[in-house]
Every structure is written in C-alpha cells, then in structure tokens.
Queue: 4 jobs
Job 1
Amino acid sequence: MNNTIVESLQIAVRRRLWREQFVAAARRALWGSAGMMLLAVVVHLAARPVRVDAVLLVIIALWTLMIAWAGLRRPSDSACALWADCHLGGASAFSTLLEMREGMQAVPNAQAVQWLEHWAAARVPHSLRLLGGRHESARLSRPLLCVLVCTALATIVLMLPGTAPSTRQELAAPSPASGADRLRDAEPLASVELVSALASALRSADSRRATGRHDDNQTSAAWTGKRDGGSGSRMTPLGTALPGEPTTPGGPPLDPAGGVAPTAGAKQTSGGASGRDAGDSHVDRADAGVSQVPRSTIQVQRRESSERLPSPERQSDMDQLATFDEGLPMRRRATDRADPGLAAATPPPATDAAPLTPTKAAYVQAWMKASRQRR
Amino acid sequence: MTADPAADSAYADAHRKLQDLRALLDGVIVGQGELVTHLITAVFAGGHVLIEGLPGLGKTHLAKALAAALGLHWARVQCTPDLMPADVTGAEIYATAAGGASTFEFRPGPVFAQLVLVDEINRATPRTQSALLEAMQERQVTHAGISHRLPSPFCVLATQNPIELEGTYPLPEAQLDRFMFKLTVPFPARASLRALLDVSLDAEPADTLQPIAYPADVLRITELCRTVLLGERCKEAAVDLVVATQPDSSGSNSGARRHIRYGASPRALQAVVRAARVGAVMAGRSHVDIEDLAAVALPVLRHRILLRLESELDGLDADATLASVIDGWRRQY
C-alpha cells in the first residue's frame, strides 16, 4: 500500500521532470535555430550564397536532435526521488527509501525502514499538493522572440540574390594584362561554356598566328640565307624580291606566294627557319656586300607580311620585325616572348579538357574587348 | 498504519518522549528554546556539553531541571584553582570495618553521577581538567590500578564564563574536542524576561519537577537513535560540511580559507551525524535529513575550529565564520 502511494508520487515527478526536459530541449533548440539563422545570414552576406532550404534542413535536424535527446533521457528513479526530497518537502525520505529498497545500504533496523515507509506514504499527499501547486515558467518567451526576429532577418537577407564577393574581389584586382578601368567595363561573366568557346576561338586565332609566324620565319630565313650568300647587308634581306622583279645573282628564286624558296645557300648555313648561325660569324659581318635590293623591296615585303596575318596578331608580327631589324638573335627573341611583360599581351592557353576558371575567363573577355577596341 | 505496530511504538514513543521533555524544560527555562533542544539532543546522543554564558542566565538551573526531568542522579563540581583530580574522580580512604579490620577503599567522586555539572571548568587547573576529560572520554576512572566504570547514561555539562578570565585555564583545543556541543546562552528576550517573573520568582521550579522519563528510557532512546537511517545524500552532505571548514581543502569557501586556521576534526563528523539522528527522532522520523545536519552544525563545529589571529583581531568569531561556511554548504543541498 505504502509502496503504491510512493510510486504514484514518483510517476508524477517523472512526468514533471520529463516535461521540463522537453521544455529545456525546446529552449535550446530555439536558441540554436536563432543562431543558425544568424550564421546563415552572415555567411550569405560575407562569404557565399546560402540556400534557404539548406538552412531549414539544419534547423530541422537541430530540433530533431534536441527532441530525441529529451525523449531518450528518461529521469531515473533516484533523480525523481531526489527532486521530490528537495522540492516537495520529502526531507530525504524518498531517496533514502529508494536506497533501502534497492539494497544500497545494509538495513540495520527493519523498524526504521518500516517507519520510513510509513512516514513517506504519509508525506505523499502533501508532496502531490506541492507538485500540483508548482507552476514554473517555461522561459520560452525570450528565445521565441529571438527566433522570430532572426527568422524575419534571415528571410529578408536570404531572398536577396546571392553575391560572390570572392569573384568581385578578383575582378577588382589589377590585372597585368589590362587596367582596372577596362575590367570595370567588362560584361558580367557568361557561363563556362561560353568562355570555353571564346577560348577555343582564341586558340584557333593563335594557331593562325603561329602559321603566319612560320611563314615569316621562312621569309627571314631566306633573307638571312641571302645575306649568308656574302652579298647582303644586315638591313637588306638579300634574295627577296617582288614577283617579276629581277633577283640578285645567286639569290633564291621567289615563290609565287611571295615567300622565299629554299636555296642551297640557306640550307648550307642554317637549314632551318633561321640562318642566324651562318650569318652571325665575324667574317660574315665583316663582309659588307653590296645590297642589290632597293629599299622599296623591304617595305613591300613588310606590307605583304602584315596583310597576310590577321589583324589581332599584328602587334606580335610588328614585334617580330622590329626584333629582326635590331638584329637580335632568334633565340633571344624567343626568350623575350616568354617575358611576363610580353606574355601579358598573349591570351592564356585554353584547352578543351580543362575549361577556364572564371578569373581567366574574365581576363580573356577583357583581352578580347581590348583587342576589338584597338582594331 | 504500518505492518509492524512495534516499529510505530518505538519511534513514535521516542518522538513523544522527546517532545514532552522539551516542552517541560521550555516551561522551566524560559526563552531558551534552542538551548534546551540542543541540550536534549546532546544527552540522547551520548555527548557532553560545554555551556558558555554570563552569570545568572540559568545554566545551573537548566542542568538541575534536566536531571530532574529525566530522573538522573546528578552531581555538581564547582571548579577552583585548588581543586584536585581526586576531588573529581574519587580517592581511596582509610576505613575501618566493623570487625576492626582497616582497609583502603575507593570512594567515588562526583564524576560518578549520571549527570555531572562542572561549573566554571576553566578555573580548574589543567591537571584536574585533564582527569575530568579523561573520564569523559573513557567513561571510566582508573585508580590504584583498578578501573571503575562510570554509570550509564553519563553526561557532563560544563560551564565557563566568557568574562573574568584572570586566573583561569582555558581548555586546550584537544580537550574542547571531547565536548559534542558548545552552547552559548543568549540573553533572553524581553517577553521571556517578563514570563520569567511568573515562573520562577518565588520558587525554584527545577526542585519540583517530576520526571517524565527514566535512565532506562534515556538508554533505550539513545540506542534507537543509532538505528536512524542515513541516506547517501546526507552522508555526502555531512562530509562536505566538515570538509568545508578545512582551509586547505578544495571544498572550502573563501571565508573559510581566509579566516580558519584549523578546521573541524573527523570526530566532528561523527558528532554531527549522531546529533542529527537524535534530531530526526525528535522530528518524528527514522531517517536523517539535511535539515537535521544543518541544525546541529553550528554547536558541533564552533569550538572545533581555530581562527587565524588576524581574523580574531578583526573582531571575527567562530560563529560568524561558520555561519558563512554553513550557508555556502547549505546552498549545495
């Protein structure tokens, strides 16, 4: 009889403690939800766009975790007895009685235990009254208010279009190839496919320019070969003449396309696109042969060479001719092309296998636009 | 109400006896309810009590009333500097029998009473104090190689005066530890003084008291109190209480660390629990509560701690220091 009465109090206390656990879990979940929303807002504004459904998913997971935590932690008998002792006037009777029943203490006197059961049973109605009279606040108002405010804030902020400050920062950074003012005029980024297409177009243009260079090299080789023939000066490409014009004695015949046909002399000295090795010898330089080609021949050659190349690559072509005019060796000229200052004017290589990054794509676009403006 | 009526009768009877005794003494010693309660607790816990108070506050009267109410044989020792140990414990005297044979026989001293009132114990010499306190601890007196058991129940009520300390021998800490309680007798409230005139103006009520219990009852209730249940929570609380008075312990608070030089001994822990058990029976329970521990904490601990000299010079006393310690401890439970 006494046991039943005491157990009824224990059940009531357990229900009460469990409810308090759920309230505490809800309170924590509310605070956590508010925190998650604030975090999402901060990330959305500062780092990267945050999707609303991702935030909702995290909050739902948080609530599930908290509710599960509260539900799985069933208040133990000792916790219930201790709570009843502390808050319901139990005077340590319920916890002591529980210890006696569970055999935690050797019972020195059965009379004492019986009197304790009697005392505890007599105390239960009073404790139940106290339990019914206890109305503790759930303390949910503040976290609830905070969640409402955070929800409103998050709703407003997360509905804004996503920003990519990292891309913006990269665009705003000065590019070695073009100025910040030009980049500011750049159009917003297209898709990666569009950029890849642009890169492919550039690559094809690059290949065309390479072809033109090859022709130029052949031309310069012919000039050098002519000079190596022992009768030309440095500024006078020997053996180059317009179709129909008379060629120099011993010079190579000109092909109909304006190129220089390979000659025995050219093959003899350099054998490649450059006849520099043959013509750079001290003896050759000292050989001040008489130029048989008028100055107009060189200019016509230059004009034809320029007209043969596509316009965007004209700068490179001019650079090549100027280098030639200065008489620099071909190897050094190639080294100069690899110079960063010169490479800045060259579009980055694009391959089909690796699409360009947004940064490079922006750079390619800016370079294209600058080229168009220059043209 | 329970399956075993004997259980009911044992604790209920003890509870009733203690309540009646307290009511009786409250009627005789007006306005000293807490003092009376603590005194009853100490007697039924088997401890000794040191009572400190100004003259005229009824200390002797209280001892006489208690002895009369419990039907105990009591004796009084008025301590003076020339009091010898034999005056307290007893001595052998040369006696002649009726047949003419002369022998030495032991004549017990006042310590062989069931309730001994030792007035102004701090006026006795340390030698006499030591003999008395040894009897209190051992509950026996050894004289000429022969041990003489003291009667049971046996309780010593010693008094001391907080003023007029010239020519006194304050009890050392080791001997103070033998007393379960140190009680202070406060000055009565005005209403109590007014009631005192109605009770004891023309008569000494202690002389006319009729006993409501007998030494056998005292022993039975004392034994019953030893069976009172002590839960784990209360055991932890009692230990924490004693640990809280240790200045070097991590469980002590800042007040204890700052003001206490030496904390309470393990004997204090035993005294707290024994006294709390009597308090539980007095409250009609067969189990100890935290409140029982808290109620006896101050009288058990106040003479067992030693304050720092700086704190004493600052005017702090043991009661004020212990009050903060007990408050801090109570908040944990």
Job 2
Amino acid sequence: MLNRAIVVLLAQRIALAMLSLLAVSVVVFAVTAVLPGDAAQEQLGQEATPEALAALRAQMGLNVPAPERYLRWLAGMFRGELGTSATTQLPVGELIASRLPNSLLLAAVTALFSVPIALTLGISAAVWRGSWFDRVASAGAVAVVSVPEFLVATLAVLVFAVQLRWLPALSYVSDIESLGQMLRAFAMPVLTLCCVIVAQMMRMTRAAVIDQLEAPYIEMVRLKGASPLRMVLAHALPNAVGPIANAVALSLSYLLGGVIIVETIFNYPGIAKLMVDGVSQRDMPLVQACAMLFCAAYLILVTTADVCGIVANPRLRHR
Amino acid sequence: MTSVSTSGTFPRPAPRCRGSWLTQFGVVGVAGLLVLAFWGLAAAFGPALLSRSGAAGGGEVFAPMSAAHWLGTDYLGRDMLARVIEGARYTVGVALVATLLASGTGTLLALLAAASGRWTDAALSRGLDTLTAIPGKMLALLMVAGFGSSIGMLVVTAAVIYVPGAYRMARSLAININALDYVTVARTRGEGTLYVMLREILPNIAGPMLADLGLRFVYIVLLLASLSFLGLGVQPPSADWGSLVRENIGALADGGASVVVPSLAIASLTIAVNLVIDNLPGRAARERGAR
C-alpha cells in the first residue's frame, strides 16, 4: 500500500514539522526570555545596587549572550530538564507531569464524544443538503463558531447548571470517588468543548462529503439505480475518508485553543490552567515549557491531518 | 506609522454614498450595518453622554433590570448600561486599531513580496509561516507573559498574530495582479518597486482585502475578549466586554443580566460583521475581478 512516492511525501511532511517546531522554539524563547529585557532588573526593581544586579544575573545565567542561552535552554528541553518554576520553586517537569494526565483525559473524552456526533451530523447535512435539517445544523454551527468559547461555556452553565440543575458548575477532579462523580465533574467542560469542536468538524466534514457527492461518478452511481444509502456508504464515503480524517485532525487542533478557556472557566486542574496561571504570575520557565508542549501537540495534529490526506489519496497509491 | 495611514485611506464600506449602497445590502445586511453603527457611535460618543449617570457604584449589587438601571447593576453596584458602553470603546476601538495595523502591515509586506524579487518573497513567506505554527491564543499568552498587557501591547499582540493571515491573503491576490500585462508595462516604463506596489497593485487588491479586514476584525474581537476573560487583557479599572463577563461571573448562578448582556454584546458585534460581509454589494464581481 505504501509506495515510494508516499514515503517520500510523508518524510517531507514530518521533516517540515520538525523544522517548524525548531523555528517555534526560537520564537518562544525570543518572546519570553530575550525581548522583554533584563529579568534580573525587573525582579530587583530600579533601586537595586549594581553588585546585587550582577550577582542575580550570574545566578540566572543572564551574563551569557542570548544565542548561547537559547542553545542551553533547547538542550535542556531535549534532556527533559525544564528548569524550576519561578513562583513555586518546584521543578517544571513535575508540575506538568501532575497536570498533563488531567488535560489528556479531558481531550480524549471530548474527542470520543465529538467525533462520532460531528461525523454523523456532517454527513447527514451533506446528504440532505438544502433541507431544513441542513440549514438548522449549518446555521447553528456558524453561530457557535462566531462567538467566543467562554460565551458557549457561560450559556452551558446557565442552561444545565442554573436552570435545569442537572450538573455542578465547577469541576474538582481531586474529590472524585466514583464513576458517577467523575462523569458529573467532566460533564460541563466536555459539553462546552464538544459544542465548539463539533461545530468546526461538522462544517469541514459537510464540505468534504459534498465535494464527493457532486463528482461525476456519483451521478453514474445514481443512474445505475443504487439506493441513496448505498450511494453514500459504499461509493462516496470511501473516497471522502482522506478529507474527513484531515478535517477531524484539524478540528481537534481547535481543542488546544478551546481548552485554555474551558479549563480556566471551570477551574479544571489541567495543563492550560497551569499555563494561564504561569502567564499571570510571569513564571517564564513554566510558560516556556507549556508553550512548547502546546505547539508540539498542535504541529503533531496538523501534520497528522496532512498525513491522512496523503495516505488516503488513491491517486498517490497507484503511481 | 505608514502601515496605519495606508490602510486608513481604504474607503470604509459604510459611510460613502449611503443611499445607493443601502438598497444593495438587503434587509439582513442593513440590520448588520445598523448594529455596527450603533456600537460605533456608542464607542465614540457614549462615555461622554453617560459621564453623569451613576457609574460610580455604591448601589445595590447585581440589581435586576429596572427604570433606574436599564440593564441592572454589576458586582460593585455600578450601572451595567454605562459599563457596557464604556466597554464598547475598548472592545471596538482596540480591535479596530489592531485590525488596521494587522491588515495594513500584512498588505504592505505582501506588496513588497510580490513586487520585489524571489528572495524577499521566500524570506517573508517562511518567516511569517513560523508564526502560524503557533496557535493564536498560545502566541497571545506568550506575548502577554513577555510584555504585559497594556492597551498598546494588546494592539501589537493582536496585530502580530493576524499579520500572517492578512499577508497570505494579500500575497495570493498580489502575485496574480503582478503577472498582468499592465504591471509589466509599468516596469518597462521604468517605474520603481514602490510605484508598482502602491499605484499598480494596491488599488486592484483593495476590494477583497476589505472583506478580509472585516473577518480579521471578528477574529481579533474574539481573541481580545478571550484574553480579557482570562484576566490577561484589558486591566481594571478599565474593562472591555470580555472583562465585564469575567467581573460579573458571580451573577451567573442566578442568570443575572450583568453577565448575559456583555456576552450578547460581543455576539451581536461579531455576527453583525459577518452579516455585513456576506451581503457586501458587488462582492462576487470583485472576487471575479481578483481572480
């Protein structure tokens, strides 16, 4: 199935992603550690004696030129030495390790729910395009996409926690003892994220399937008398798998933006909350590590989307 | 800054020759325009009109809607209507300046890339691609961590995040125009790069870039509102609509107006811009011309 053309293309995509990550690391380091100016000066204030300033600079390693500091920082990242948090004095690695499983769980549960819902909605909207179902679903998706995530979250709290009283408004993962409690704690964050992701994914899936349904071979399938169900499932979908997988991976990358808002509003102890707290306390080592983690995840998802497109393209398979 | 003044000379769609434009917008487009005009006026003149009406606070906290306080009061007992109108200045104003800066810089760089040689083009394109490899909100958090969140920095942050998008759009348009005969004629005539950029290419990509400007404005409004909601955007005592939702989140438990109204204000602004763009007269014609 994999021939040389595909392998070469895949290798190119992956090399490009690695290169992008390297470029991203330069930007992250420049924005957080070089451009803002002298961190030692800021920590000690304007009245600091020159001796104290020089001592702190030496302690923080600021007396070496920026490119060298960048290389040391990058090498540290590769070895897993992420430095110590400026506010809590704990190793950044430990902080992240304690929060990462929570965020991954949230992302996994969201993906588990949103992918099937979005695919069903997207494919149905494409098949019955122009119908009232399609119009309602598409208009709903546009509405969700064009308002901020925190608005969706606020509305969800208003409806499900305040009006209907089905769910608690905040989630605290620490006091979970049973499966029922876990479901209740997860419900609001997952629900909000699902709304955002489903809207994105549905729009893209719909576009991908419509693209196939308007191809000439579908006309042929219809002319030979195949049932609509068979036309969609046996003929259109196999060809739309690539674009759909692409859409799924790309939409999941919206999780990264959404999770920042959702973890903050629901007080969910995940990695994005950790980063937002780091930003408000200007805890640079923590912010750098979290940012690199998020950017790596983003690049992995975007590259996966490309890879899905390449592998599923039948034209490349029979070259 | 040159970039700002360049984009400032683009004709804004609304005010010019209103009569003939309005009929072409359709009902939905006009509704969008009215909402935009309302928020524009609120941002420009609202605070001056409201300066005397009890914005100082001290009244009942989270009061419901009443004749005295049309939209109720906030978590300090301040009049919510006054807060929302003051917030319009930050939400609309900051986003507008940032959008003009982003689109202006993006367009200018794109013109430079299209009109000068291959190396400038490649260097600019690769450099800006790097920025798109960082998710927008993540870059915003990084910039705030590095440079703080004064109003000026927020404008710069939002502009930096959306320059690559504007650049990519403008570049694809400009490259096509650059290949046309009249540009070659201008070059043969001995015109410099700057002349070709500004007099030959710019007028022909201005239309589609205006529609793009509207979309970028929506993205920037959403980004700034999200930042303020996280407490990393506009800092107290100033407040944009995102900060208003954050401040009054306590009213959520009883569905108070003070948390719902700013949310609705954001939604009305972004949806209105979308409606206006979708109903822009002659949009199809302009896109055909751009191709």
Job 3
Amino acid sequence: MATQIVMDRTGDTRHIFDHQDHAEVAKAGQRFRELTGAGFTAAVRSGPGEQRIIRSFNPAAEETLFYPRLVGG
Amino acid sequence: MSQQFLMSIGWFGLALISMLLLSAISLVAARSGSCANKFRFESETKALTLLKEWLSPKQRACYERFRYFDVVGCDTGTRYRIHHGTQTNIEELSTTGRHVCKWCFVPDGDLVAGDVMLTQKIALETNERGSLSVARRSCVS
C-alpha cells in the first residue's frame, strides 16, 4: 500500500492506494498530475529526515507528500 | 387599572422572550466557537505528528525540547532555525550561530503550524534559492 498525503486546513488528507492495483495506480497518477498542476509540490522521503522533490508520479513511492505553492509571508 | 396591569404583563413577557432569545444566541455562538477550537486543535495535532515523522532524529529531539529545529540550506549551506509558528518564524544563523535575519515564506492557504514548518524544512533543504526568492526578509531581531 502507498499513501498520498495532501496538506490542507485539516492538517492533511490521506489517499491510500494499492500499488498492485492498476485502477488505483491510475487514479493516484491522475491525482498527482492534478495536484502538481495546481501548484502543489510533491516530496518523498529518502531517509530519516531527508527528502527529495519528485516531478513525475512514482507509483512505487511508499509515501508522497504534497504541499501548496510557497508565498511570501 | 386592569389595562395597565395587562400592559405590564405584556412588557414583562416581551422582556423574558428577548432574554431567552439572547441566551440561545450566546449558547449557539459559544458552541460554534468551541467547535472551531476543537477543529483547530485536531488539525494542529495531526500536522505536528506528520512533522515529527519527517524530521531527522536530531531535529525532532531539538524541536521537542526547544520548539525549534535547524535545517541546512541545500544551495548555500546556510543554517536556518525554524521556530514553532506560522509567520516570520525562520531565523538565518551565521557560521558562529548568531542571528543574521528572519525570513518569512509559507505554503499558500490557511495551514496550521506543523504543516507550515514541515513545508519550510523541505523547501529550504531541497530548493533554498527558490524558496527565498518568494520570501520576505526582515532584519529586526
């Protein structure tokens, strides 16, 4: 199972999908494109306290975090 | 005399109804305020759990003790201290650990502190220059 975590006003919303299930993977891929298209950045953990930004959907990623575009405070 | 008596009873009844209405409105307002506080608390707790999962053991220990943690910018190697909060909470440190200035950038939307701090950490550690290009710099300590 893999999780897409989308930051929002509730803290976050989680979408869990089975990376063996083609339909669920397709849906997750669609969600990835929609979110990044809307300005979200996608990050995956690459080690304890380490992460990298991904630009394309990786169905094998255990956990993908999406955060909204950055703005000056 | 009886007309005056009836009028008094009428006014009294009207005052009583008004008081009851006001009490009901206050009760609804208090309940909705408490719901909003509960929602905010739950969101904050969820976001802080996520933040701690993504921090390194050292950053997590530091945050739990001091309510801040340090990150190193991926482009310049500069050290930044992210304090608990959602505004102007990033402190740039010199090589000797002294305060240089403050930076403010946040994820768009009304996100809670845990999410804001996690976004700031990832942004500085993976895209320092890009993040600071949208940030506001403040030299007041």
Job 4
Amino acid sequence: MRATMNGEPIELPDGLTVAAMLQHLGVRAERVAVERNGMVVKKARHAEEKLAQDDVLEIVTFVGGG
Amino acid sequence: MDDFVLGGHRFTSRLVVGTGKYKDFPTMQAALEASGAQMVTVAVRRLDLTAKGEASLLHWIPKDMVLLPNTAGCYTADDAVRTCRLARELQLGGENPLVKLEVLSDQKTLLPDVEETLKAARQLVSEGFRVLPYTSDDPVAARKLEEIGCAAVMPLGAPIGSGLGLRNPYSLQMILDQAKVPVIVDAGVGTASDCALCMELGVSGLLVNTAISGAKDPVAMARAMKLATEAGRLAYLSGRIPRKLYGSASSPLAGVIAAK
C-alpha cells in the first residue's frame, strides 16, 4: 500500500492499523502523535483505525524549541 | 506572595525558557535548572524515522516543569492549528492545554503574521486551548488577541533570536496599560539587563531562548536572567522615583561645615 509519511512516499503492508504501522516502523506510540489526512488519530483509537491507500500520514514528537 | 498565575497554573518564577539550540541535552538541563523556570517551551516536529532510539528531549526536562508546546515554524493559521492539536495529543490530551501560538510572516524577519495569528487564535480558543500568542508590539493586535480570549499576550521585544533587546518600550507600555491578561515579552532579549528593563516596566513574564542557549556559558547566563528577572520585578513593585532633569541632594543641606 502506498502512502505519504512525513512528506515522503512510503510503501506499507496492506490493512495496517495505526498501532500496527507504528510497530512496523519500530516507533514507540507513547512518544509520538499521529495525524492521518489532516486529522489527529487519538491514542485510544490507534488499535482500531485502519490506514488506506494514498493516506497522508504525519508522525511527530517534541523537540527543543523556543 | 507575588505569584504569576497563567492559564490555570501558579508560578513563582516569571522567566519562561526555551529548549532550542543547545549544544547538548546535559547543558540544556543544567541551564533550565539554573534559570529557575517552571515552564519551558518545546517544538513539534516530524519524527526522524531513520534515527530510532534517539534520546528523548523530555527525558532531559525536569519533571516538575510545565511544557509549553509552540507552533514555531508555522506560516499559516491552518498549520499552527494542526500543530496545536498534535501537541495536545503528545501531552495525552490534557484539558485546556497551554500552547504558544506563533505564526510567522517570513524567514528573514521572523516577524509575526498578525492576521493569521488572530485567525488561529480564534479557532484554538474555540477548541478549548489556553492560547499564549506571540505577536508584534502593536497595542491594537494585542487588544484583539485578548478580546478573542487568549490567556496572555506575548509581544516581541525585537525579532526572534536578534538579541536587540526591547526596541519599543513605549508600545509595550501602551499594551501594559490596556491589558487585563498577563503580558509576556517573547523574543528579542539579548542579555540580563533586557530582562530587568522589561520587568521594571511591569510585564508579567519573559520568554527567553537564544540569549541563554547561545551564550558562551549558557548555565551562567540562565542564572543571570533569573536574577535580572527577579530584580526587575522587585524594582517594578517597589515603585521607582520619577526622572528629573536636575540634581536633588541626598544628604541634609543644613549643618555643612563649609565656610560661607
């Protein structure tokens, strides 16, 4: 399945949930927030919400800033 | 007690510090502690998917410090609103989270785009955020942001990272005269005397990043900023003497031994 992840094209296995995607990428869910097609996917919904072809995904975290 | 109440929090420190541009996390941590700050700003950025297991910023921020996520780097209201929603999710969706709203106009000046800032502020307030907007030193913009329901207004002293200090104290005084929410000077501080000057004018707080992280000794500068902020506040509360053109003797005029 083709998607856009943090502005770059990415190939992901079909039928992943958000939780499974994070696991697939080796990312710990508690440190990140996920946006799918412009909407935040709350952590409580990570295990339910399924990704689809051509999704635009963002995975963000806190970094130093002023 | 002269506490600083902001967005549902009560602080004893009036200095808010940033976490950007430190050479390493241990230096940042030592500077944060030396500053005495109880609130620190953080930015929201795309996770580097190639750098797994990298040390987390939050690990180095003392646990009792309140996080103030910013929308730095956003140039439109839409991006700033999205960033705030992600920041809320990163903080596990706390009620009425604090956000530092910053919508910039261009990369050279880094001056605020007030039109986009107002638009984003309206949306964020309606979603329950406690919005602390970075804005120009324009009293009209500050008044509009307050009317929208922002929890504070944060006029700049000078452009971000410029270290020019408070360029327009008279505009700041107009903002202070009218504001019923805390006024925090955000951006422009270069050294400790800038902190003292702002505090002496009566601002509620200061936000400083580059002037600390970019100093030769960030930890010592953080302490200098802390002391200057406290000194300036105390001077403000003490009520300074009026300025006069001519001298006014401080010793008694009578009983001088001089022959005349």
